[in-house]
Amino acid sequence: MAIERPTAEQLQTLASQLHLNLTPEQAQEYLTLMQPNFDAYDLVDGLPDNIPEVRYTRAPGYRPTGAENPLNAWYYKTDVKGADSGKLAGRTVVLKDNVALAGVPMMNGSSTLEGFVPAYDATIVERLLDAGATIVGKATCEHFCLSGGSHTSDPAPVHNPLKQGHAAGGSSSGSAALVAACEVDMAIGGDQGGSIRIPSAFCGTYGMKPTHGLVPYTGIMPIEATVDHTGPITDTVYDNALMLEVIAGADGLDPRQYSPRVAAYTEALDKGVQGMKIGILTEGFQLPNLDAGVDAKVREAIARLEQLGAIVSEVSVPEHGLAGALWSPIGCEGLTAQMMHGNGMGFNWEGLYDVGLLDKHALWRDNADALSPSLKICMLIGQYGLQRYNGRYYAKAQNLARKARAGYQRALESYDLLVMPTVPITAPPLPEQGCSITDYISRAFEMIGNTAPQDITGNPAMSLPCGMVDGLPVGMMLVGRHYAESTIYQAASAFETSGDWRQM
Fold it and tell me: Any idea where the Amidase domain is (predicted)?
């Protein structure tokens, strides 16, 4: 096959976009010299793509409606049976709908991506199926995963399974809702600003954001490579640890992975917390919108950990607030460059690219007004930083991120874990349809004060339910050293077995 060659006039237009001026004669001369390069493009075009083989049979499935989808938490239902045996044999799993499942549509919460069908399975999908899981579908997620609320998904908001009309949290809204509603055993979520932990806190599930790079992101639509995380959402600590055992580890295809250290996480669950040092993060309780009921429940939960034998005291990490502030230039400029201008894939990394996703997502430009306000505001901030300041604040923020990581590291040299509320509020009512842009955006980001920092520092963090306020769950978050997921599971398991969180 042959790619389309530009004309001399088209080459002049391209040159102007690169701030170059070419005469017609120069354009023709350049065009002649470019032909061998275009021949190389022809060679690439004529070869089959080098993507993984799809090893488990499946059908496209269907999009459930009405009584079959009362929470709007399902995007697609299907039935992909894994191996006959393995750690997850007999377990049902739903994937966040930014995870590639070959042959099954993927919309990532946005109408602009509707109709896209991945050609290969994400690495974590292969690992889940090899471990015997049955993947039963795709869970609704928020519009390109840019919301901590659950009102930004196309075509409809996701409801909290404990209270209809209230937020399920985002952006892994459907994943947490389906686990909490007992419609699936386990779910995969994604986390760039809290999107595993926020819906877990709102819905009463266990959500682990692992250390950055512990779980391969290959085959999952990125937002920004330095903050992209994926991990498990489950109904028990054991299931969470078991699922992480299956999906963790290098795959040789993800540039986010730096020789990740894996462990047998389930072996940490019965060790208790006797003598474990836990620091109550002062700054985590200073969020301006921290609800008094949430504050009280988390402090009661910390007191329970102390009764179980943990050594508990206050600790200040001023860099916690810095990390939260760094999310704006890193997240906004990074997503504008990679997810939008870079058509979802970006450049300058080796690994597995999804060419079909790149082609489909590039069409967002034809219908940009359909993008959610929560994405638009991030794009506007990001574009301003890139265009007006040449990306210098993204670069400086990445430099300062090392300082934020060091602040956490200093505290975690004296403590095994840090603890704070996952989110400052319980699940609020969903915004009314047709609400103002201000309400729409405010409700998308009002809860990320404690969760965004660990996406910048890369520390593992887990939300676990620790009580109820007015019939809605409260989440407590445990943060550990890099690759110390076992320590987090150890404490989470001790707390879980100490009593029913619904009665706390």
Answer: 76-488
> Is residue 210 a contact partner of residue 460, using CB atoms and an 8 Å limit?
yes
Identify the CA nearest to 226 among candidates 401, 386, 97, 396.
401
Cα–Cα distance, 101 to 96 (Å, whole number): 10
- Radius of gyration of the chain, Cα coordinates, nearest whole angstrom: 23
Residue in the block written with tokens 């004529």: 46
Is 77 among the residues known to form the active site? no
Does the pLDDT value for residue 1 go beyond 80? no
Strand ranges for 408-479 from DSSP E:
417-421, 461-469, 472-479
Residue-wise pLDDT for 7-33, tens only, equals 999 999 999 999 999 999 999 999 999
**What count of other Cβ atoms lies within 10 Å of the Cβ of residue 257?**
19
Burial class (CB in 10 A: 0-12, 13-18, 19+), 459: buried
- Asked whether residue 342 carries a pLDDT value surpassing 80, the answer given is yes
Q: Is 195 a catalytic residue?
A: yes
Residues 6+ apart with CB under 8 A from 147: 170, 171, 372, 374, 444, 445
pLDDT per position as a tens digit, 70-120: 999 999 999 999 999 999 999 999 999 999 999 999 999 999 999 999 999
Nearest alpha-carbon partner for 203 in 235, 230, 227: 235
Q: How far, CA to CA in Å, does 214 sit from each of 34, 155, 487?
A: 43, 33, 15
Phi and psi at 280, nearest 5°, equal: -80, 110
Mean pLDDT of the chain: 98
Which tokens in the block code for residue 18? Answer: 């690169």
Residue-wise burial string across 97-129, b where 16 or more C-beta atoms lie within 10 A, e elsewhere: bbbbbbbbbbbbbbebbeebebebbbbbbbbbb
Q: Kindly name the residue from 110, 150, 153, 171 that is annotated as catalytic.
A: 171
Distances (CA, A) of 446 to 149, 263, 289, 425, 443: 8, 35, 8, 9, 6
Which of 153, 195, 372, 463 is flagged as catalytic? 195
CA distance 374 to 199: 17
Distance CA(21)–CA(26), nearest Å, equals: 9
Told to judge if 110 belongs to the known catalytic residues of this protein, a careful annotator would answer no
Out of 96, 138, 297, 360, the active site residue is: 96
Tokens of residue 294, six digits = 């949430």
Quickly name the fold that domain 66-503 has.
Amidase signature (AS) enzymes (3.90.1300)
Give dist(CA 404, CA 317) in Å, integer: 9
Summarised one tens digit per residue, pLDDT across range 179-211 is 999 999 999 999 999 999 999 999 999 999 999
Q: Which of the 8 DSSP states describes residue 99?
A: B
Q: Where are the domains of the chain?
A: 8-46, 66-503
Residue among 443, 427, 405, 440 at smallest CA distance from 475: 427
As a whole number, mean pLDDT of residues 251-271 equals 97
